[in-house]
What we know:
The structure is a homodimer.
Chain A: E1 3-7, H1 11-24, E2 27-39, E3 43-55, E4 61-64, E5 73-75, E6 80-86, E7 89-96, E8 101-116, E9 119-120, H2 130-139, E10 149-157, E11 160-167, E12 173-178, H3 185-201, E13 209-214, H4 219-228, E14 231-234, H5 238-241, H6 246-249, E15 258-259
Parallel strand pairs in A: 12-13, 13-14
Antiparallel strand pairs in A: 1-8, 2-3, 2-8, 3-4, 4-5, 6-7, 7-8, 10-11, 11-12
Helix pairs in contact in A: 3-4
The first copy, chain A, binds a DNA duplex through β5 and α3.
Amino acid sequence: MSVVSLHEPSHRETLWELEAAFARGDTVSVFGECTVEYDGRAASSLGPGARLLVLKPDGTALVHTDEGRTPVNWQPPGSEHRAAVRDGRLRVRSTRTNPSETLNVRFSAVDHLAAYAVTGGRSVDVVGSEADLKARILEEPSLVADGFEPQATERETDAGPVDVFGVDADGHPVVVELKRRRVGPDAVGQLARYVSAVEREEPDGTPVGGVLVAPSVTDRAAELLAEEGLDHVAVDRLVAETDGTELEETDVVGDDDTVG
Amino acid sequence: MSVVSLHEPSHRETLWELEAAFARGDTVSVFGECTVEYDGRAASSLGPGARLLVLKPDGTALVHTDEGRTPVNWQPPGSEHRAAVRDGRLRVRSTRTNPSETLNVRFSAVDHLAAYAVTGGRSVDVVGSEADLKARILEEPSLVADGFEPQATERETDAGPVDVFGVDADGHPVVVELKRRRVGPDAVGQLARYVSAVEREEPDGTPVGGVLVAPSVTDRAAELLAEEGLDHVAVDRLVAETDGTELEETDVVGDDDTVG
DNA sequence: GCCTAGGTCCCGTCA
DNA sequence: TGACGGGGCCTAGGC
């Protein structure tokens, strides 16, 4: 694959290469001194500094500082990138509609630009998601409660879709909410909402059970569960149950040629 | 500022330059053909493809494809980057503890590398946050209800902190939940949790009001509010109330030197 | 360190 | 298209 890279280009050179890169569908990285302004769902302004700007062919724009996983400013996919030279500065503007948002990056100097055709697989199979937990529960419903029988997943209620819905050993409805990680009060509120919604559907007086399936719960969540008469079932994360040593095996001790 | 850039470097050259960049505290962008493996809170594997790898001096690692604002794989700040040549491939590994996580990027070929000292302001003042909405409410409490008197913000309850707590014209407690954007059932659940918690604290029978302050609510959220006896007050987002045309004014019609 | 909730959350999925 | 909830969410603020 070929890369186009410019070292300390003039604004005109940068402009030209950005145009070419957009036309090719390349992904572009730009290092330089810039200010950033954003206006849309919120608004922000960022003073001068040396930063990394990444522009993707799908309309994504990312402004990164030297810290943090989250870009300091950005524009989501679907935006439109345009570049121009104004007032002696290179301006890269990315706009989108619905909601209407504008990102404005103004470079006083561009120190480096690289354009490259990024291709290949984009999605990863993530193991250990809530979907995996659901499969595990459906495979072994007794994990939820002895005699529990699942009847539906994503069952709709007035309060939203229930992860797993079924009946207990007595035939009473049970709402199951699944979480892949330790949960706090919000998850209890979610489960309580679903239970209330099902109770409203049922004939008066029918008891409706609620079970929160998660690796663990915070103290406050436990209190709220007790107050609401709901249950918690601890189920370890699936990824922990597998022999997760594959990555390690590739890393033999005694590395040569190692830095960092 | 100076940039070091390598065009189609050998693995040894890449290794050397990565070591130097890490030592200098530079931010690095690498374009090349790679596979990615991740193991930690979840696990994933990404087949061969041309991608962008960004390495920051704070330990952040980002693997980007040509689509999406979210990196296809990453490592959060605080991780440790190491590079090595193994089996004819350049391996960049980023690890962290608590939780224990490993990101493994293996390059069959590096097409471009650039290292640069990213510096300057990192944080932006975002206007239009929930904090701004709170200030607006405290400034003009009648927006919540005629005669509403705020008494505390972030008041603690058994169910978590209440955004704004006060009393209505009759002296009865009122719980206010603020949202900067249109809300769904989850926000209603949150408000209901807080109201229930305050009711538990109060002498039996004391009515406790609940008000959701948000630009708008979904139909389902409105139903749930009604069922819970809670109120909604529509307050437009603050950013919309300002003359949000600053960015536009800088963009005079009839751009010269515009591409894209 | 954990807990709690916000976020320009992003993102997929489904009605 | 909007709505709804998951996420390796990330991040800030308390305790």
